[in-house]
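Q: Here's a chain of 199 amino acids. Please give me its 3D structure as C-alpha coordinates.
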Amino acid sequence: MKKWLIPVIIIFVLGYAFYSFAKGFNNTAINLNEDISESWANVETAYQRRNDLIGNLVKTVQGAADFERGTLTDVINARAKATSINIDPSKVTPQQLAEFNKVQGGLSGALKSLLVTVERYPDLKTNQNFLKLQDELASTENQILTARTRFNEKVKPYNNHVKTFPNSILAGWFNFEGKPYFQAEAGAEKPVEVDFSKK
Protein backbone atom coordinates (compact mmCIF):
# COMPACT_ATOMS: atom_id res chain seq x y z
CA MET A 1 0.00 0.00 0.00
CA LYS A 2 1.30 3.43 -0.92
CA LYS A 3 2.16 5.71 2.02
CA TRP A 4 0.23 8.70 0.67
CA LEU A 5 -2.94 6.58 0.64
CA ILE A 6 -2.96 6.10 4.45
CA PRO A 7 -3.66 9.78 5.31
CA VAL A 8 -6.36 9.88 2.58
CA ILE A 9 -8.07 6.83 4.09
CA ILE A 10 -7.85 8.31 7.60
CA ILE A 11 -9.31 11.62 6.39
CA PHE A 12 -12.07 9.77 4.54
CA VAL A 13 -12.94 7.64 7.61
CA LEU A 14 -12.96 10.69 9.91
CA GLY A 15 -15.03 12.66 7.41
CA TYR A 16 -17.53 9.82 7.05
CA ALA A 17 -17.76 9.45 10.86
CA PHE A 18 -18.44 13.19 11.26
CA TYR A 19 -21.00 13.09 8.44
CA SER A 20 -22.78 10.13 10.08
CA PHE A 21 -22.79 11.87 13.47
CA ALA A 22 -24.07 15.16 12.02
CA LYS A 23 -26.73 13.38 9.97
CA GLY A 24 -27.88 11.40 13.00
CA PHE A 25 -28.01 14.54 15.15
CA ASN A 26 -29.92 16.54 12.53
CA ASN A 27 -32.46 13.82 11.74
CA THR A 28 -33.14 13.10 15.41
CA ALA A 29 -33.57 16.82 16.16
CA ILE A 30 -36.01 17.15 13.24
CA ASN A 31 -38.02 14.12 14.41
CA LEU A 32 -38.17 15.42 17.98
CA ASN A 33 -39.13 18.89 16.72
CA GLU A 34 -41.97 17.35 14.69
CA ASP A 35 -43.17 15.60 17.85
CA ILE A 36 -43.28 19.01 19.53
CA SER A 37 -45.24 20.50 16.61
CA GLU A 38 -47.77 17.68 16.76
CA SER A 39 -48.10 18.04 20.50
CA TRP A 40 -48.56 21.83 20.16
CA ALA A 41 -51.33 21.24 17.62
CA ASN A 42 -53.07 19.09 20.25
CA VAL A 43 -52.73 21.93 22.79
CA GLU A 44 -54.28 24.37 20.31
CA THR A 45 -57.07 21.90 19.51
CA ALA A 46 -57.96 21.60 23.19
CA TYR A 47 -57.98 25.39 23.63
CA GLN A 48 -60.06 25.77 20.45
CA ARG A 49 -62.62 23.31 21.80
CA ARG A 50 -62.84 25.40 24.98
CA ASN A 51 -63.27 28.59 22.95
CA ASP A 52 -66.08 27.00 20.93
CA LEU A 53 -67.81 25.78 24.09
CA ILE A 54 -67.49 29.22 25.70
CA GLY A 55 -69.32 30.76 22.73
CA ASN A 56 -72.22 28.35 23.28
CA LEU A 57 -72.10 28.90 27.04
CA VAL A 58 -72.31 32.67 26.63
CA LYS A 59 -75.32 32.33 24.31
CA THR A 60 -77.07 30.12 26.86
CA VAL A 61 -76.32 32.50 29.74
CA GLN A 62 -77.46 35.50 27.69
CA GLY A 63 -80.93 33.94 27.78
CA ALA A 64 -81.13 34.84 31.47
CA ALA A 65 -82.40 38.40 31.09
CA ASP A 66 -81.27 39.63 34.49
CA PHE A 67 -77.81 38.06 34.35
CA GLU A 68 -74.91 40.46 35.01
CA ARG A 69 -73.81 41.78 31.64
CA GLY A 70 -70.37 42.82 32.92
CA THR A 71 -69.47 39.21 33.70
CA LEU A 72 -70.46 38.12 30.20
CA THR A 73 -68.54 41.01 28.64
CA ASP A 74 -65.40 40.00 30.58
CA VAL A 75 -65.69 36.43 29.26
CA ILE A 76 -66.30 37.59 25.68
CA ASN A 77 -63.33 40.00 25.78
CA ALA A 78 -61.03 37.40 27.37
CA ARG A 79 -62.05 34.86 24.73
CA ALA A 80 -61.27 37.36 21.94
CA LYS A 81 -57.80 38.00 23.41
CA ALA A 82 -57.14 34.27 23.83
CA THR A 83 -57.95 33.56 20.18
CA SER A 84 -55.81 36.44 18.90
CA ILE A 85 -52.44 34.86 19.77
CA ASN A 86 -50.91 32.37 17.35
CA ILE A 87 -47.61 30.62 18.01
CA ASP A 88 -45.35 28.79 15.57
CA PRO A 89 -44.09 25.82 17.64
CA SER A 90 -40.87 25.61 15.63
CA LYS A 91 -39.95 29.17 16.68
CA VAL A 92 -41.67 29.48 20.06
CA THR A 93 -39.88 31.68 22.59
CA PRO A 94 -40.34 31.77 26.37
CA GLN A 95 -41.88 35.25 26.01
CA GLN A 96 -44.45 34.06 23.46
CA LEU A 97 -45.39 31.08 25.59
CA ALA A 98 -45.69 33.31 28.69
CA GLU A 99 -47.98 35.71 26.78
CA PHE A 100 -50.07 32.80 25.48
CA ASN A 101 -50.29 31.44 29.03
CA LYS A 102 -51.27 34.88 30.36
CA VAL A 103 -54.20 35.41 27.99
CA GLN A 104 -55.41 31.83 28.44
CA GLY A 105 -55.19 32.36 32.21
CA GLY A 106 -57.24 35.54 31.82
CA LEU A 107 -59.90 33.56 30.00
CA SER A 108 -59.84 30.86 32.70
CA GLY A 109 -60.29 33.54 35.37
CA ALA A 110 -63.21 35.18 33.54
CA LEU A 111 -64.80 31.78 33.05
CA LYS A 112 -64.45 30.93 36.75
CA SER A 113 -66.12 34.25 37.64
CA LEU A 114 -68.96 33.43 35.27
CA LEU A 115 -69.50 29.98 36.75
CA VAL A 116 -69.42 31.33 40.32
CA THR A 117 -71.92 34.08 39.39
CA VAL A 118 -74.25 31.45 37.90
CA GLU A 119 -74.77 30.08 41.43
CA ARG A 120 -77.08 33.07 42.07
CA TYR A 121 -79.41 32.07 39.22
CA PRO A 122 -81.43 28.95 40.12
CA ASP A 123 -83.18 28.80 36.71
CA LEU A 124 -79.85 28.90 34.90
CA LYS A 125 -78.32 26.28 37.21
CA THR A 126 -81.05 23.82 36.23
CA ASN A 127 -80.96 24.63 32.48
CA GLN A 128 -80.02 21.33 30.78
CA ASN A 129 -78.07 23.05 27.99
CA PHE A 130 -76.07 25.00 30.54
CA LEU A 131 -75.36 21.90 32.66
CA LYS A 132 -74.22 19.96 29.59
CA LEU A 133 -71.93 22.82 28.52
CA GLN A 134 -70.55 23.11 32.05
CA ASP A 135 -69.72 19.37 32.05
CA GLU A 136 -68.09 19.65 28.62
CA LEU A 137 -66.03 22.63 29.79
CA ALA A 138 -64.79 20.67 32.82
CA SER A 139 -63.84 17.79 30.50
CA THR A 140 -62.11 20.22 28.13
CA GLU A 141 -60.08 21.78 30.97
CA ASN A 142 -58.80 18.27 31.75
CA GLN A 143 -57.93 17.80 28.05
CA ILE A 144 -56.03 21.10 28.09
CA LEU A 145 -54.06 20.02 31.15
CA THR A 146 -53.25 16.68 29.50
CA ALA A 147 -52.24 18.35 26.21
CA ARG A 148 -49.96 20.82 28.02
CA THR A 149 -48.36 18.01 30.02
CA ARG A 150 -47.75 15.99 26.85
CA PHE A 151 -46.27 19.08 25.17
CA ASN A 152 -43.77 19.40 28.04
CA GLU A 153 -43.02 15.68 27.73
CA LYS A 154 -42.12 16.19 24.05
CA VAL A 155 -40.00 19.28 24.77
CA LYS A 156 -37.77 17.49 27.30
CA PRO A 157 -36.13 14.92 24.96
CA TYR A 158 -35.67 17.59 22.29
CA ASN A 159 -33.99 19.96 24.76
CA ASN A 160 -31.82 17.13 26.09
CA HIS A 161 -30.80 16.30 22.53
CA VAL A 162 -29.83 19.82 21.42
CA LYS A 163 -28.40 21.13 24.70
CA THR A 164 -26.02 18.31 25.66
CA PHE A 165 -22.40 18.27 24.55
CA PRO A 166 -21.25 17.66 21.81
CA ASN A 167 -24.71 18.00 20.25
CA SER A 168 -24.90 21.61 21.44
CA ILE A 169 -22.11 22.49 18.99
CA LEU A 170 -24.02 21.02 16.05
CA ALA A 171 -27.26 22.60 17.32
CA GLY A 172 -25.67 26.01 16.79
CA TRP A 173 -24.60 25.09 13.25
CA PHE A 174 -28.04 23.75 12.34
CA ASN A 175 -29.94 26.53 14.19
CA PHE A 176 -31.70 24.23 16.65
CA GLU A 177 -32.57 26.07 19.85
CA GLY A 178 -34.07 24.78 23.09
CA LYS A 179 -37.84 25.10 23.53
CA PRO A 180 -39.63 26.59 26.54
CA TYR A 181 -41.90 24.53 28.77
CA PHE A 182 -45.44 25.38 29.77
CA GLN A 183 -45.35 26.88 33.25
CA ALA A 184 -48.19 27.17 35.73
CA GLU A 185 -50.31 30.28 35.24
CA ALA A 186 -49.50 33.22 37.48
CA GLY A 187 -51.38 32.91 40.77
CA ALA A 188 -52.09 29.20 40.25
CA GLU A 189 -50.52 28.48 43.63
CA LYS A 190 -53.31 30.43 45.39
CA PRO A 191 -56.58 28.65 46.23
CA VAL A 192 -59.67 29.78 44.34
CA GLU A 193 -61.95 31.92 46.50
CA VAL A 194 -65.60 31.08 46.11
CA ASP A 195 -68.16 33.35 47.78
CA PHE A 196 -71.83 32.43 47.62
CA SER A 197 -72.87 35.03 50.20
CA LYS A 198 -73.98 37.59 47.58
CA LYS A 199 -77.48 36.38 46.79
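Q: Can you summarize the key feature?
A: The radius of gyration is 25 Å.
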